[in-house]
Every structure is written in C-alpha cells, then in structure tokens.
Amino acid sequence: MDKDALLHKYQDMTDKLMDLADDLGWEYDRMSSSGQETLDKIYKILGMETIPEIDLKILKEQQQKEKDNE
Q1: Mapping DSSP to helix (H, G, I), strand (E, B) and coil, where does residue 67 land?
Q2: pLDDT at 27
Q3: How far, in Å, CA of 54 to CA of 41, rounded?
Q4: What's the pLDDT tens digit per position in 22-34?
Q5: Would you call 70 exposed, middle or buried from its count of C-beta atoms within 10 A (0-12, 13-18, 19+)?
Q6: Can you give the three-state secondary structure of 4-45, one letter per residue?
Q7: pLDDT at 70
Q8: The dihedral sign for the CA sequence 38, 44, 47, 52
Q9: Burial of residue 25 (number of CB atoms within 10 Å: 0-12, 13-18, 19+)
Q10: Distance CA 36, CA 28 (A)
C-alpha cells in the first residue's frame, strides 16, 4: 500500500472513530465516572474537546452574554 493510500485509510478510520466518540458523548451523563474518564481520554487522543470542556465553554459564553446585557 502506498503512502497516500495508507494516509487516506488512517484518515477514514480517524473520522469514523471521531463520529463514534461523538455518538457516545450523548450518553455522557449516564456513564459511570470511569466511563466518562475513558471517553475523555479517547476525545483527547482524537484531538476533540471533552464534554466538560464544551460545557465550560458554553457556560463562559452564557456568562459573557449576560454580562454584555447588563
């Protein structure tokens, strides 16, 4: 397998893993703390923001909007 084909294969696999991890994220609140930690590690390996990071980002944006509206 040449270099371009191998790169394409790994990119495709990575995309599929990211989609699957994203699907699991919808169940984050129902997971055990161990499951959440494992999913966070998977997100980090894939270069994705973790659910707590996304939640914090949303909270900060909401707080900024409230501050701007005062």
Answers
A1: helix
A2: 95
A3: 15
A4: 999 999 999 999 9
A5: exposed
A6: HHHHHHHHHHHHHHHHHHHHHHCCHHHCCHHHHHHHHHHHHH
A7: 83
A8: positive
A9: buried
A10: 6
Predicted TM-score (pTM) above 0.70: yes
Distance CA 47, CA 53 (A): 12
Structure tokens at 39: 């999913």
Predicted pLDDT at 31: 97
Tokens of 45: 């390996």
* Angle, vertex CA 44, rays to CA 43 and CA 45, nearest 5: 95
Is residue 39 within 8 A of residue 31, CB to CB? The reply is yes
Q: What is the pLDDT of residues 29-50, one digit of tens each?
A: 999 999 999 999 999 999 999 9
Taking the C-alpha atoms of residue 22 and residue 46, their distance in angstroms, rounded to an integer, is 11
